[in-house]
């Protein structure tokens, strides 16, 4: 197996929505196609990757550092003893001459390529990624469906409480039992009205609603909101303060008895370990949301899983951010607690296969080899155009 070509591009995933920190008016993401010399049905096998959402495209780092290293590597340096792709070795090649710390967009660039290499390797074996991963890194018996919750509930120009309720009703109609909305982008009184409007749609059951602050609150505001929302018994209170402010997180966890979720903006093993060491998270109720596509890919995510195990955390306490197909396979293979889902946002990259059906907030996996981008027509068209 040899990499013959790599292609890199950018796809807009912009929209008028806003969370408590950013709007998405210029959001985009990197895509890559990695072509191999393995031929199937008369065509080279190609692996695809993209960088989830929430971080911008990382083309400069891909073009100037990550991809040239991969292309210039002796083919044998990327392979295991059986001649298949060795993902950890490929990771080392991509990270040559990179200092530790300050992860930023570099972890995004490596994550895109890591995803494409996993897509490629599982296609070469003719297996859906979750089976490929379960055989290598799991117990060989992947989950056949994955818990998913519907994320949305953004702020948007002119969006009324009725619009918010209709959006949430739409998620329930699609088969989701648990939904997520944004808070922290309005004042407390308005956010409480928004939360109560959504809880009404959920038949009064706050445990089916997660709220996401996107890192906006200082400690006082975090505690004030915590006191106000605690009686609702929410599914979780997410990314409450700055993602790297572990002390804030620990202080909130001391006072807020409900579940907390965070980690979508932690991009490395070291950052995730600091969260576990210093963030005060409770392994019986809190959730880690590290997104493999943003944080150096699955090779690093496997290291994070090891670290969590050593600290007594179950993989079931992980529900990655991003709502993408890559994490869906990872969730089934590594027996995570579930995966985010974006039924309405971040097109064309967001969401699962076109024919995926959600029932009782669970989605099944398909037998399409690789990640299955080929079963997501609008996105596949964009990916295919990269190398046609
Ligand atoms: O609004 C965003 O950036 C996405 C986000 O936080 C999430 O999916 O949890
Ligand atoms: Mg979030």
Verbal overview:
By secondary structure, the protein is an alpha/beta fold. 37% of the residues lie in helices and 16% in strands. The protein has twelve helices and twelve strands. The strands form two sheets. Strands 4, 5, 6, 7, 8, 9, 10, 11 and 12 form a nine-stranded mixed sheet that branches. A three-stranded antiparallel sheet has the order 1-2-3, with helices on both faces. Helix 4 runs parallel beside helix 11 (325-334), helix 7 runs parallel beside helix 8 and helix 9 (269-278) runs parallel beside helix 10 (297-310). The radius of gyration is 20 Å and the shape is globular. The two termini are 21 Å apart. The mean pLDDT is 97. The structure holds oxaloacetate ion (OAA) and magnesium ion (MG). Oxaloacetate ion (OAA) binds next to loops. Residues 161-259 form the Mandelate racemase/muconate lactonizing enzyme C-terminal domain. This is Mandelate racemase.
TL;DR?
It comes from Streptomyces graminofaciens. 37% of the residues lie in helices and 16% in strands.
* Averaged pLDDT: 97
H/E topology pattern = EEEHHHHEHEHEHEHEHEHHEEEH
Give the overall shape.
globular
CA-based gyration radius? 20 Å
Strand content: 15-25%
Strand count: 12
Task: Give the arrangement of secondary structure elements.
Blueprint: E1 3-12, E2 28-40, E3 43-50, H1 59-72, H2 87-94, H3 104-124, H4 129-137, E4 145-151, H5 161-173, E5 179-182, H6 188-201, E6 209-212, H7 219-229, E7 236-238, H8 246-255, E8 260-262, H9 269-278, E9 287-288, H10 297-310, H11 325-334, E10 339-341, E11 358-359, E12 362-364, H12 377-386
Parallel strand pairs: 4-5, 4-10, 5-6, 6-7, 7-8, 8-9
Antiparallel strand pairs: 1-2, 2-3, 4-12, 11-12
Helix pairs in contact: 1-3, 2-3, 3-4, 4-11, 5-6, 7-8, 9-10
The structure holds oxaloacetate ion and magnesium ion.
Pfam families: MR_MLE_C (PF13378)
Domain Mandelate racemase/muconate lactonizing enzyme C-terminal: 161-259
Protein name: Mandelate racemase
